[in-house]
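Support reply, case 0932

Customer input (verbatim):
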Amino acid sequence: MSGPVPAEGTVVVVGASLAGLRAAEEVRHLGHTGPVVIIGDEVHAPYDRPPLSKQLLAGTWDVLRVHHHAPDRLDTLGLDFRLGSRVTGLDVAGRSVVTEDGSELGYDGLVIATGARARTLPGTAGHPAVRTLRTLDDCLGLRSDLEAAGAGARVVVIGAGFIGAEVASTCHGLGCAVTVVETLATPLARVVGEEMGEACAGLHRDAGVHLRLGVGVVSIDGGGAPGSGQPTTVRLDDGSSVDADVVVVGIGVDPAVDWLAGSDLVLDDGVRCDERLFAADRVVAAGDVARWHHPVLDADIRLEHWTNAAEGGPVAARNLLAGSGAAEPYAPVPFFWSDQYGAKIQVLGRPAPGDEVVVVDGSVEDRRLVALYRRGDRLAAALAISRPRQLMGYRPLLAAGASFAEAMASAGG
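Our regenerated output:
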């Protein structure tokens, strides 16, 4: 059991992320009068990640627009930001964290919101033409590379997941010649299934983006900085190769938990938490880093979605202050979206590759549709392409654990 945090106690939030900021805001909104310290390894104040692969990368937004609050708005919350500082250790029993300069900070309540880090391809560290996209600095660096490469730049995106697809879409919109390389035969098949993955592939093809599917990357050879006139060669395992001015690696992320080694927390594809987001006494986790037991789905899950960070941060804070005895389970309906080539893909619930998929509105050919996912006799998920209003009617059904028959009746089927 975890007791409530004293009103004058110190709350430490590790991670100046969306989840971390929302948690800190909730602590103040609940009337907590003690210190609230946010430690972040980036030098930037908390910002929104979705625009990094879209509006900010395209140059249609400036940097100020991606920040969650103007500095004067943050000042009114009385938060102690310690940015550009990395936490290297946690002592659960002693209720303290250690930063990279060796200093120790005690807490009465701790929120872990360190998010995730982009995976990299072995052997590409330091390559001047290879980028990942996770942070604000990543985005600004990639945008600079695209500008240096000039009109018609050849961009190879490795990975056709949502980040890779959004980068491909944005680069295509900037006039780049884009090739997407994906090891799966169908993009996103593990996330939305084969049929809807093929619909997403159609968005690339409709735009004229070149898909290289079912192939992996063997090496990235040669090349200089974008604009140098020295192309980089991406060699594939089918013996072919693609020349590029800019290479973007979008092969997923890993939870940022290295600093928790030896802390006695259970690390299992993230920080393992109970259904109330407690990882230990007076310790909660939220956002991409949290793996918790979802009481409705009856499964341990970790979600890398903006909505999970926005919703989970406040729940973690409320539960932390209240203590585990008065805490409430966290049972959201998972929701995420992606904007690609002018289409909006939205998903409610958790699709799985083995689900039966039924298109109940529109068609794959038109790239405008609503599809329902059946698992056993239950509604497991719903997906829409450019049908936002129609999709949202299925949220209450998913929250209630509705049967597939009920969902079909709601769809008029």
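We compared this against your earlier run and they match. Two observations from our side: Residues 342-411 form a domain with the Enolase-like; domain 1 fold (CATH 3.30.390.30). The radius of gyration is 22 Å. Please reopen the case if you see a mismatch on your end.
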